[in-house]
Amino acid sequence: MSAPTATAPASSSRPRRLRGLAWLMARQHRTAVITCAALTVAGAAWIVYQRAAMLDALHATGWPVASARTVDRAAHDRATSDLDSFGSTLAFLPVLFGVLLGAPLISADREHGTARLVATQSVPRGRWLVGKLCFALALAAVPSVVLSLLYSWWLESVGPLAPRDWLSGPAFGATGPVLAASALFCTALGITIGALARRSLPAMVATFFASYTALLAAELLRGRLATPRTLAYPLGSAQPAALDHVVQVDQWVGTASGELYGWGTCVHDSSPEGCRASLGIVNSVWEYFGQDQMAGMQWTSAGIFLGLTALLVGAFLRWARHGAL
């Protein structure tokens, strides 16, 4: 009788879907991956819930059968406030990515000695740093794109009840390509600052102030992303429908020949009508940005952010070749 042959037990472990450097990135930064995934799911669920609740409240007032102007003022103001509040939170997301994801990406490894340990392994230093860079940028881009698309869907569902001031309001920075582009910029900024710093906390503080200042400057310069339009209509007449849902830049009074005066001209005169007649003022003149200009201005803004991101990535890669870990 032959002796039983011993067989090795089959391995119960499943093969890893990620291998090599990709697995290392996911393993080392699993907390960031889980946090970003939870943020995306929670944000998406919140938008879906709030959108449904808002539409139910507006439908109860008779909208969309009734016009936007006849909707209950309290419901209208509440919808505008909720959209602005969530949009402001969403527009601040790039700063968080820069501070919590970008800044500690390299500085934490330098502070804890992980960078020197990796430098002794088989993975080349340049490949490791590029892998971390791509990993962080992808991790910032995915939640930004998803939440931006969902917020745009929410805004479009309420149509004319959406906040009117899209230029200085949060809608500009939280919809279209701007949110993802600014998230990439702030993350790249944080990575660059973190590469120059040796400790995480100073890098995070510097990234917060730098990224917040950059986004604030971008907001102040939005009005230069396109040329405002001008429309003149008879003074004292009803405002044309073309000026509904536009962003007003300035307003004047003017003559038939096109000469402009300040809006307050003749207002405090003892005879305003006679004063205007003597100056030939017959028109009210608006300078404004139309809703149809928003997409082009957003893509211009996103292009600027992406160009700055490319410069920061180039600076980081240059440091990766010559900088000391």
- Which residues sit in consecutive blocks of at least 5 with pLDDT less than 50? 1-12
- Radius of gyration over C-alpha positions, nearest whole angstrom: 28 Å
Distance between the termini: 66 Å
Helix-strand category: alpha+beta
Structural write-up:
The protein has 325 residues and is of the alpha+beta class. It has two domains: 20-225 and 293-322; 229-291, no CATH class. Helices cover 62% and strands 8% of the residues. The chain is elongated and about 80 Å long. Residues 1-12 have low confidence and may be disordered.
Write a compact overview of the structure shown.
Helices cover 62% and strands 8% of the residues. With 325 residues, it is an alpha+beta fold.
SSE diagram, text form:
Elements lengths: L19 H9 L1 H31 L12 H19 L1 H20 L1 H6 L5 H34 L12 H4 L3 H19 L3 H21 L8 E6 L12 E9 L4 E3 L9 H8 L1 E9 L4 H29 L3
Antiparallel strand pairs: 1-4, 2-3, 2-4
Helix pairs in contact: 1-6, 2-6, 4-6, 4-8, 4-9, 6-8, 6-11, 8-9, 8-11
Task: Describe this protein with a few key phrases.
four-stranded antiparallel sheet; 325 residues; disordered N terminus; alpha+beta; 4 strands
